Amino acid sequence: MTADRHHAAALADRIGSMRFAMFTFRDQYDHLVSQPMTKQDVDADGGIWFFVNSTTELWDSIAHQPEVNVSFADNDNSTYVSVSGRAERVVDRAQVEARWNAAVQAWFPAGPGDQHAVLVRVDPHAAEYWDSNDSKMVRLFAMAKAAVTGTQPDVDGEHGTIKL
Fold first, then answer.
1. Backbone angles phi, psi at 6, to 5 degrees
2. Residue ranges of the domains in the chain?
3. Count H helices, E strands: the chain?
4. DSSP assignments along 42-106, one per residue
5. What are the pLDDT tens digits along the chain (164 aa)?
């Protein structure tokens, strides 16, 4: 496995079970704007796929300013991942049909043939992650102890960067 494929696989492992993300992009005034999105897929190259409506501000904005950030959080396991990358607009009916599912149907009732049902693929540059190795109870106890003693919580965790 090449280094790039290894890093892409590491990213896919980190965000594998996390379905929802906050997708941050720049609006027409160059302000940062975030909105919740549902991850559809992570491909072998690390590309993260989302369905979007072609009439939205997100769709228009990434045509001009494709640099984006996608943040994932799994609060139950204290795992957080922030992905920076370049968004690509994908209008490909075969790709739309390949990634279609019942949840997408709720947003596009006309089905995969809906002309406004399109895809965004984020090609990651890097991802930063924070992952706690302690159980939720251990983390809560450490935070309570820290609050009482005036110290920082002693929790076992991992923080790193994946370059793609």
1. -65, -45
2. 3-163
3. 5, 7
4. E-TT--EEEEEETTSHHHHHHHH--EEEEEEEEGGGTEEEEEEEEEEEE--HHHHHHH--HHHHH
5. 454 778 888 888 889 889 999 999 999 999 999 999 999 999 989 999 999 999 999 999 999 999 999 999 998 888 899 999 999 999 999 999 999 999 999 999 999 999 999 999 999 999 998 886 554 444 444 445 445 656 664 544 566 566 66
Domain 3-163 -> CATH class: mainly beta
- Asked if residues 64 and 88 have their Cβ atoms less than 8 Å apart, the reply is no
Among all chains, which residue has been given the structure tokens 């983390």?
139
Nearest CA-CA partner of 35 in 1, 59, 11: 59
DSSP state of 109: T
